[in-house]
User: What shape does this take?
Amino acid sequence: MARTFNGNGSGILPDRSILQLTEGGHLRPSAPYADGQVQPASLDLRLGPVAYRVRASFLPGPQATVAERIEALRLHTIDLSDGAVLETGCVYIVPLMESLSLPADISATANPKSSTGRLDVFTRVIADRSRGFDQVAAGYEGPLYAEISPRTFPVLARQGSRLSQIRFRRGDTLLDAAQLRALHERERLVDTDEADLTNGVAVGVDLSGDFAGGLIGYRAKRHTGLIDVDLRNGYDVADFWEPMSARPDKSLILDPNEFYILASKEAVQVPPDYAAEMVPFDPLVGEFRVHYAGFFDPGFGYAGAGGRGARAVLEVRSREVPFILEHGQIVGRLVYEAMMARPDTLYGQGIGSNYQAQSLKLSKHFRS
Assistant: This one.
């Protein structure tokens, strides 16, 4: 029978509790954690030594393991120990270096890391006998796998590369409407006097260019070179991105199947006792997808952690038809969750966080 976790209360588990889970055998890394792998409210997940190219994306369902589905769908096996290129348009499954034996009262949720989303690398975590991506049920015992599908740029990855992150929670962590409004009144979660707090904090798109010298974003180029996912400041922006300037009418037409990096109109912040997530926007309002990497650690944009509010960078892809975005149009909502305890270290507070106090910013791989 799965044991319970000895922390107090409900909420997202902070960094020290993640270490306690590890010490208690609930988190099982195949090698000691790397520097910076434990974040304020999440754990980076590392790729294992092999990748399997498969015919198609899949979920194992309640009667199968991921390994069984790989065996049925595998095209070939790729050695990641010295690095390998993952091509665009292909689907890869990689066993992760972290496995789980969760307590009966602890569940988990995964997201792509911010830098992964900004490269348009579609990444999801899969658990055995699961019916959904990026969701791990309380009490789960078994391995974890990453599904990886580069969409725009081919990438070079290796054993130990960190493309996804996982966070752990106990109980009901989501703030309801009254709690969210009270938090906004105390902390001013967005820098606007007319914040829309319906079903989370509404986030609009900035197409004015006022915060980035007239730039509103970048559109990814096609047929580029590859990107090493572990290399910082290694690439010229012009080799991979087309900068876009603000139009007089402050609008932007999204072309189908193109990938854009934009920024939010609002500066947002996440106080130390909370975490936040950008949730998918209502598809009835627009045929586009925003924000692959939707998790915001405690301290993001927070003045006490070196921020002054930070723009949410938006990874945007239109679907089947061209779609016009207007300045200030709502493209997502931030929902806030309570932490079980304040983390020992906040985002941006001496831990090498890449996007604190950001405006419009590409991933860490590009020279600014």
Observations:
- Confidence is low (pLDDT under 50) at residues 351-357.
- DSSP finds four helices and 27 strands in the chain.
- The first strand starts at residue 11 and ends at 12.
